[in-house]
Amino acid sequence: MKKYMGNKLAILLFILPALAIFITFDFIPIIQVFAYSFTDWNGLTMPNFTGLKNYVDLFTDRVFYTSNRNQFIFAIVITVYQMLFATIFAITISDKKMKGRKFLRVAYFIPVILSVTVVCQLWSAILSGEGLLNKLFEVAGSDFKQNWLGDRYKAIYVIAFANAWQWMGYQFALIVAGIKSIPADYYEAARIDGCSNVKAHMKITIPLLAETYKFCLIISLTGGIKAFTEMNILTGGGPNKSTFTLTYMMYNAAFKKSNYGYGLSAASIMVIECMLVMLVINFIFRDKDQKKEEEKARRKRNA
Amino acid sequence: MVLNDVAQSTGFLDKLYDANKDLAYAEDGNIYAFPFSGQEYVLWYYNKALFAENNLEIPETYDDLLNCIEVFKSKGITPLALFGQEGWNTAAAYDVIATRYAEGGIKALDEGKASITDEGYVNAAKKMEELVAAGLYQEDATTTNYDQASEKFLSGQAAMFINGQWYIEDATKTLGEDVDWMFYPAQDAAAYEAGKAVFSGGGSSSGFAVNPDSANAELAAEVAEFITEKYCEAKVMYRHNPLVAIDTGKEPDSEYPAMMKKLSDTLPSITATTKFTWGLTNSTFNDAIQSESQGLVSGQFSADEFIQDIEDTME
Questions:
Q1: In this complex, do A240 and B283 lie within 8 Å of one another by their Cβ atoms?
Q2: Its pTM surpasses 0.90
Q3: Rounded distance, CA B302 to CA A66, Å?
Q4: Which residue of A has its CA nearest to B85?
Q5: The domain at B42-201+273-314 falls in which architecture?
């Protein structure tokens, strides 16, 4: 291993394929997104440089603020729902004494393998005006009939719930894998010290899952910011763009108005938001050792 | 590819109806696609049986319509089923009201010949807001798709329906004699009569086109013309729709449905049409009218917001 790590040519050869793919399919397109966002490109003809016009238009567009608000709500709802329930379910089924744990493990994961379209059709049938949920209220004699997907303010919560329900199983699988990697000795020692089950999980399981949680947070928060499919299928972005996100703005500008430049300015803001979220999460979850080193360096500087 | 010569040599121009010439020619005077559709119309369908059962006359004015809404709602019937998930349907719902106040409807707005702040358009928005508040459309109209709305109408759960004339065939097949279309209601009897000559809808210049860089572009152009002709023939013969771009010389395989006959009889008196959203040329306005009319239909956006937002967008 040492031999290879010391050989710079070998290192280059090993990382080259992945690096080439990353540069071709990720890095260059992202740079292009930023570059075209300063133009009036319509997707067909040569783009003309328009400076900050698209950004000025974007920041004065009411839909931009609605989209950001929706993304924020969406990201928070799915993050809280998925991490909370995934943790509870994962801890529950990791107890080997529990009956039916194999069945539950599969059941929680099933929505993940379903197509988003199928899941959205399912929720659409449940949440539509004459859908199952309203019918249940009707049968129960309640007049709590709601326009779940058509409400200007509430629809985004409902859509976020549909997404959270589907993808909770993914985070559940990650947390289960994380729990499995924790040595059983820790729990045994805790039990000998008279620690309750709940306390053991609070003091051992959750702190040791920090890296898993970091990954879960990144995928759910950035997933929230990039949300599109659910609103496209369930509400079509309506009523009157009230369930738009930046991705939807990009799609709408590019494919409905042939205004790729404007759409890509929305996409650029979305990329920046995703990167900011990742930076903040990485900062929050930085290693203790790293923190200590930073502290040492600070002291040295001050000395 | 410019298709002028092929249109001439294949005889397409000889068959093209005069009324549809503007659909074939672009602004620069060239033909870039062989259009297959003729002028099309937004029709306001209604269930005759439901109106008769409830002793209601066809509404001619908005007051009549409000009365119908009240009666139908009291019986648990949706007055008008809209498939508002599709923006064009809500835009058409606004247009059938707007054309009663301003003849140009959404077409004039699209072409910049009128402004959304003009009195007629403002009155139309306010009227639509009033009708929405009264319950003209189902509460979840903006999340209803075509299948759901059509099912409501065809099953008798809804009394009225707004769609293009292409729906005549399907509606007749299910409802038979119980379905018909009405002239759009207006603010008063005089406006109702005058409005009979103005329809929402219109033609669009979509059709079969050819990529000039194709290996056999000339041959492809002839094939495109052939497909257009056969497409029009099929619409006339098997879909019982005579509203095609060219005179096919074909007869339908069975009689035209009564609603189509009524429309054919009405055609000579139609003096103005607007456009379907796919025929609009200003994509910014097109996007705005679809989403803003959807907001109006939802009942959660006011007429003032509708006017303001479209005005801001167009600026």
A1: no
A2: no
A3: 17
A4: A236
A5: 3-Layer(aba) Sandwich (3.40)
